[in-house]
Structure formats: structure tokens, C-alpha cells
């Protein structure tokens, strides 16, 4: 199942109520590296990892992009209870992402 897309407005409404660990992948539509990151995350999701992973087009997320100072895409933002705790720009491999999201 492909990553679910979320809008900036929906994510901002969700963050104050978020509990636990979840992940947002910031992408752009025509970014080849972003497509590769999506495929890698799809593989990770097919394993035993049970974490909410959604994607957000950075072009439509100026508030979060500026607040979180996201410098480039793809950018994997790991959230704990609605707060960013890690920004991962290099996806490296499926194994790396799997270990990161355990």
C-alpha cells in the first residue's frame, strides 16, 4: 500500500494530539530521489514495522518547511508525540530505514 498523503493543514491540526512515534516524508512531485525514498519506505512498511508514515509535498507546506527549517527533499521527519526529534535527509538503504524506524 503506497504512503498516505497528508496536507499541511491536516498535519498541523493533528500534531497537538499526536501520541507516540510517527514519520512524515517531505517530497516534491518530480523528485526522483523522493520516489526512491517512497519505494524504500513501502518495503519497510511491508515488514513488521508498525509506524504511521505519511508523505507531504513540501511545496504545499511552507509553514512547516520554515518552522522546521527543512533544507531539501526527501526529508524524513521523525516525530515523537507530535514534535520533530530527527530529520533524515540521506535514506541510504532499506535496511538503514528499517533500523531507524524500529
TrEMBL record:
InterPro entries on file: Thioredoxin-like_sf, Thioredoxin_domain
SUPFAM superfamilies: Thioredoxin-like
Positions of the Thioredoxin domain: 7-86
Pfam families for the chain: Thioredoxin (PF00085)
Name of this chain's protein: Thioredoxin family protein
The species this protein was found in: Paenibacillus solisilvae
Amino acid at each position: 500500500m503506497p504512503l498516505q498523503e497528508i496536507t499541511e493543514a491536516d498535519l498541523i491540526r493533528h500534531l497537538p494530539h499526536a501520541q507516540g512515534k510517527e514519520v512524515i516524508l517531505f517530497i516534491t512531485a518530480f523528485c526522483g530521489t523522493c520516489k526512491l525514498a517512497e519505494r524504500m519506505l513501502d518495503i519497510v512498511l511491508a515488514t513488521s514495522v508498525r509506524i504511521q508514515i505519511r508523505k507531504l509535498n513540501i511545496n504545499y507546506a511552507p509553514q512547516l518547511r520554515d518552522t522546521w527549517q527543512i533544507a531539501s527533499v526527501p526529508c524524513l521527519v521523525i516525530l515523537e508525540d507530535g514534535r520533530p526529534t530527527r530529520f533524515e535527509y540521506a535514506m541510504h538503504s532499506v535496511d538503514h530505514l528499517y533500523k531507524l524506524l524500529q
